[in-house]
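Q: What structure does this chain adopt?
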Amino acid sequence: MNNLVLFKSENFQDIECDFWKNENNDIFMTSEQLGMVLGFSDPSKGVSNLINRKLKSGESPNEYLKTKEFSSPLAMRTPSGMQETRVFNEDGIYEVAFLAKTEKAKEFRSWVRKILKGLRKGELELLRKQIEEDKPKLLFYDQAMSSKTNKTMMIVAKELKLSGRNKLFSFLRSEGILMSGKSKQNLPYQQYIDSGYFSVVIKIKVIEGEVVDIPVTLVSAKGVDYILKRLEKSKEKGLLKQAN
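A:
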């Protein structure tokens, strides 16, 4: 699990609860704070005892709470420095709160359910708003992709009998037709767009809960003919080996 970032702080009665979020937008609480809101006199030890308690038979019925499905150990920065603590995801929070027999546990379960539901609703609303704002881009992309005169690099590579679009990308970069910089890799230089060989459209993709604009290079029918001529010309120079 990568480092967590503080996502939201809310007060349960007189206790401040910090909700942390990872790169997948999963929400967590630390063992220490979970023990505090559940009313354990020694918060961390109380949760640890709950997890590790054994029956007379020697079985530990709550050991499952240590699995990744419910929690993970994580090094986090505290006022005393970096310390390893256990963090519980949403399912883990509910499980620990259900198993706790304190007076506060029932109140906390009702409270945290509303909080987490609100956080999820807020994220979904933000995502919906972003997608709504990007609808013109989506429409433009769909129209461009449906046009018979525009083809993806993968389709062009197949038509030209090259072994994959990466070989085609490599060839066009070596010919100075596509850019090679990291931020603009595989995008055509403006002169080739102006010539009608290529077009660039924006594809909307949701990555880890965030809406990301991804530029996509398409090839026109005129562009396919142009690429073929460049390939034939390069074959005479012996430059086509890298594209085959």
